Amino acid sequence: MTQIAAEVRCMRSRPAAFEHTPHGHGDHDHIAAANKAYFDEHADKLEEMHPEWRAMSRKQVDAMRTEWPDLFDKERTTALDFACGIGLVSEPLSQYVKSIVGVDISQVSVDRYNAQAARLGFSPEKMRAVCVELKGEPGELDGAKFDIVICRASYHHFASIDHITRALAALLKPGGSLLVSDIKAEADDRELVPAAHHDTVPHTHGISEERLRATFEGAGLSWVGMKDAAAHLGPEGKEITWFIARGVKPSE
């Protein structure tokens, strides 16, 4: 894999089209900036604020491995952890892949990710993160391509999941897989995200299988499927379901 420069300057993405959210087209930059500011401020306190996140991340990595075991080869598989945060997905994933590159727009999160990777004894070739907002342009990440791209608990934060999915699909090798874990929309379409977080979460009702399948196929990926992976009680005491989903880039 092409060596990725360790010092990548954080950039703001150009506006992308909005979807079925209560926000307008011009709010894309606001959503991205709000998320960056939130995670820059709270990255050092996330595990204290949300002690359940580490176990949830491991549970969803395990669900992906159980559902699609052939994707994980510690001698061969190159992985991209998109919206990697402080590394709660990369840490358990590191046991089952050859290398991981984390990508996030929060420099504070990236710094903590890399510090933790060093504490765990990993070289940058094994596990490292860079701070950059992908635009879906040719040559991003020094032209690197990956066997799997994983994005956990972040799709509901993106103004345009179509835009993001196209950018992630472009980073897959032919035959590579995009794996997404996020909040599943309920049949009654009830709101699942508290109002206090609406500045950083445009998809407040979760994401339906129909919507995600259309997004994957629109990005040129073959739809494999969606499975329930975990559940927890939301702020109003109602159960929230988390899914795992997979799409595959056609082989050349």
From TrEMBL:
InterPro entries: SAM-dependent_MTases_sf. The keyword Transport does not apply. Keywords: Methyltransferase, Transferase. It holds the Pfam family Methyltransf_23. Gene3D superfamilies: Vaccinia Virus protein VP39. GO terms for biological process: methylation. GO terms for molecular function: methyltransferase activity. The keyword Lipoprotein does not apply. It comes from the Eukaryota. This is S-adenosyl-L-methionine-dependent methyltransferase. It comes from Polyporus arcularius HHB13444.
